[in-house]
Amino acid sequence: MKSLTEYLTFKVKTRRAFVNITSNITKLVTKSKIKEGLCLVNAMHITASVFINDNESGLHHDYEKWLEGLAPHEPIEQYDHNKTGEDNADAHLKRQVMGREVVIAITDGKLDFGPWEAIFYGEFDGRRPKRVLVKIIGE
User: Fold this and answer.
1) 3-class DSSP state for residue 104?
2) Closest-CA residue to 51 (of 114, 95, 109)
3) From CA 52, how far away is CA 85, in angstroms rounded?
4) For position 119, what pLDDT does the model report?
5) Which positions of the chain have pLDDT values less than 50?
6) What is d(CA 124, CA 18) in angstroms, rounded to the nearest whole number?
7) Which residue intervals of 43-134 are DSSP H helices?
8) If DSSP codes are grouped into helix, strand and coil, which group holds residue 27?
9) Residue 87 pLDDT
10) 11 HSE (CA, 13 A, CB side)
11) What CATH number is given to the structural domain containing 134?
12) Which of 3, 53, 65, 73 is such that its CA lies 20 to 30 A from the CA of 83?
């Protein structure tokens, strides 16, 4: 069995953003030379996520509205976590909903996606560097 471990770093300029990282992951699968296996993509910060869905701006806007409705950023005083001096309790909650990682099958040396699927990095407390772990294993 072979493996490849890489770390990607993202620093978005806004508090919240969705970044399509499919091409980054595709390049790493090619680099790994693994033909059959699995690819784990994992957000290494508790206010960021990795998820798979459609690369469609309307959907991303819907996510933004839906998540803000579930866990609004303001007023920041509504969250006990923010009483510690933080202002990002909403980001922790949004990450919990959107997920920590994805696992994608590798078949014949390529990510084995369903129709319209793409991999996204979700940022909920941006403006600083954060890492994403990519671990690819297989034959």
Assistant:
1) strand
2) 95
3) 33
4) 98
5) none
6) 9
7) 57-70, 89-98
8) helix
9) 96
10) 3
11) 2.60.120.460
12) 65
Residues 130/11, Cβ–Cβ less than 8 Å:
yes
Residue 133 belongs to what domain range? 2-138
Tokens representing 59 are 């959907």
125 close to 49: Cβ distance less than 8 angstroms:
no
Instruction: Classify residue 106 by its DSSP letter.
Output: E
- What confidence score (pLDDT) does residue 58 get? 97
Q: Is 26 exposed, middle or buried (0-12, 13-18, 19+ CB in 10 A)?
A: middle
The amino acid sitting at 59 is L
Q: In total, how many domains does the chain have?
A: 1
35 vs 106: CA distance, rounded Å: 7
| Alpha helix (H) residue ranges in the chain | 22-32, 57-70, 89-98
